[in-house]
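Please check this one:

***
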Amino acid sequence: MIELARELGLAIAGSAEFIQMKQAQSAFEQNETIAALMQELNEKRERLITILAQEEGDDMEAVSLTNDIDRLEEQLKESPLYEELVAAQAAFSSVLTAVNDEINACIGGETSASAGCAGDCGGCSGCKH
């Protein structure tokens, strides 16, 4: 059984969706502009956490940092590399969901299609209930 799991893992690692996701991650992480945004974002998040942990933290600085964090997050989301990464992650997640559904269907478990199953098979789309 472990050998079959290994084979499945290797097959997943060789899938177009996984390869595309890894390429998108690499492009995202290697981009200098994004790296600078991420560094600034992380620094501001850490500073905000420090301020919020203090008994008498500076409320104005916390508000300013929150606004800065929101602005930086929006800048990241506007990047085509970010959009590609999110799309690639979603595609790979769909592959994993399909694999898990197939395994669960074979062992009589719940699949994503049957998650809301109430036992009435009248409107069933094939959850193997």
Summary: The chain has a mean pLDDT of 89.
